[in-house]
Specification:
CATH superfamily: P-loop containing nucleotide triphosphate hydrolases
Number of strands: 8
Shape: globular
Radius of gyration: 17 Å
Order of helices and strands: EHEEHHEHHEHEHEHEHH
CATH architecture: 3-Layer(aba) Sandwich
Number of domains: 1
Strand order of the largest sheet: 2-5-1-6-7-8
Bound molecules: adenosine-5'-triphosphate, magnesium ion
CATH class: Alpha Beta
Structural class: alpha/beta
Number of helices: 10
């Protein structure tokens, strides 16, 4: 598939959307055309799916909403359960089809996962299976809070055990204070063995264009090598 990144996190609510949109702005600054995708969004608030709106706003080119989010669900609960409540089924094939449409219209597509890496999408498959089928390098957003070391290391293991590449990780300060924050970041620097893309402080103004300069933007062409020619 084309050039892109799959954004996962140590949990739900750790800053995946913020980092995904920051990354999109960073890629745009490098002169690339960029689209975002939130393939599965669970939870409509005030008639809107905020993540989908944010990914569309951060894009450099327009794209139909049904490509950006082929599976928008009403309830803010685990996606496969939300889908079941609506008599729907989250299918990876439909998401891949939407992704391949997006990939034709931009140099890079940033895909935000849903919840944490192993969140179920249906009775058999998880967000990790989606990342594998998309074959995208993964970026891990670590929400800095107690427990994040375990969650970050488990997620990195789960990424690598599927032979996906961990293109980097971001430390995101999701609370005004966190005891031993520096030591926690150091612990991950020593153990994650993946590029550290930056840290985002706890902020009042969460504009993605302000996040981009805080991140080392990975090169999508380096991380998504062209498939080798068949003999
Ligand atoms: N660095 C930060 N400073 C202050 N607030 C933050 C920061 N990062 C994230 N938040 C807030 O935390 C909440 C969760 O962030 P975000 O929506 O990006 O997480 P997510 O991982 O995408 O969540 P979801 O799993 O629902 O998609 C949001 O309200 C966001 O504004
Ligand atoms: Mg999100």
């Amino acid at each position: 598939m084309s050039h892109g990144f799959f954004i996962t996190g140590t949990d739900t609510g750790v800053g995946k959307t913020l980092v995904a949109c920051g990354l999109m702005h960073g890629l745009r600054r490098q002169g690339l055309s960029v689209l975002g995708m939130k393939p599965v969004a669970a939870g409509r608030e005030n008639g809107r799916w905020e993540d989908v709106d944010a990914m569309m706003a951060a894009a450099s080119v327009p794209a139909p909403r049904e490509w950006v989010c082929p599976c928008a669900l009403e309830e803010p609960i685990a996606p496969h359960i939300a889908a079941m409540h609506e008599g729907r089924h989250i299918g990876i094939d439909a998401i891949l089809a939407a992704y391949s449409h997006l990939a034709r219209f931009a140099d890079a597509v940033v895909v935000e996962g849903v919840g944490g890496f192993l969140v179920p999408l249906n009775e058999r498959e998880t967000a990790a299976d989606l990342a594998v089928r998309l074959a995208l390098p993964v970026i891990l957003v670590v929400g800095l809070r107690l427990g994040c070391l375990n969650h970050a290391l488990l997620t990195a293991d789960a990424v690598r055990s599927r032979r996906l590449r961990l293109a980097g990780w971001v430390a995101n300060q999701i609370a005004p204070s966190f005891d031993a924050q520096e030591e926690n970041i150091d612990a991950l620097l020593q153990r994650l063995d993946a590029p550290f893309l930056g840290r985002i402080p706890f902020l009042d103004a969460l504009r993605p264009e302000l996040i981009a300069p805080m991140l080392r933007i990975p090169d999508p062409f380096e991380w998504n090598p062209a498939p080798s020619a068949k003999p």
